[in-house]
Structure formats: structure tokens, C-alpha cells
Description:
By secondary structure, the chain is an alpha+beta fold. It is 34% helix and 29% strand.
Amino acid sequence: xIEFLFFAxxxxxxxxxxxxxxxxxxAAGGPAGIPGMARIPAGEGRWRSGRxxxxxxxxxxxxxxxxxxxxxxxxxxxxRVPSVREGISINPGxxxxxxxxxxxxxxxxxxxxxxxxxxxxxxxEG
Length: 126
């Protein structure tokens, strides 16, 4: 009987701690930018995680590591679901947006379906 009381108190304490942490995170606001993964050039290379930021005039891709990729003048050329092979390295439920950069290069940005509309508002269709 004492074990059940102990486990109930431990569960209540953990629930209180998780709820407190959740409230602190929601009060601080969500992180800026649209989370996703990208690869440059499109169809080649490795997927790198990072965020697309739309503020300060022009959109830009900021990978977790590495240099910033400006998306100013980039045009969206298509949206597709990932192939089975791509689904292994990125979330298979994501959507891949293919873009042509201003310098003629290409980039693919994979975002979750709930973030797709926000990304398409940042990058004009071409």
C-alpha cells in the first residue's frame, strides 16, 4: 500500500514539474523562424536542419551549423512529398518546397505541413 502512495506522489510531483516547465516555455513565446531541413543544390547533397527567417527585409536560411543562405529573390517552383528514400533522412510527413535562387542555384526546403503556408508566404511563386 505504501508503494502505491509513493508512486502517486511521485507522479503528481512530476506532473507539476512538467506543467510548470510548459507554462514557462509558452510565456517566453515560440522560437522565431520556420523550422525545417534544406539541401543545396536541390536533389543532391545532405539534408541540414535549420530555420527560415523572414524578418529584416529578405528571407534567409540559417542552418544549425554553417553559413547563412540568403533567399532574397528566390522563387518557388514546386511542392512535393518526399520519396521513400528521402523519408528516411527527413520526416516522411513533411512537404518539400523546391526553389530557384537569385544566383541561378537551387535549394529544397522540407517543412511540416502546418508550416507550409507560412513558408509559401515568405517565398513567392515563380
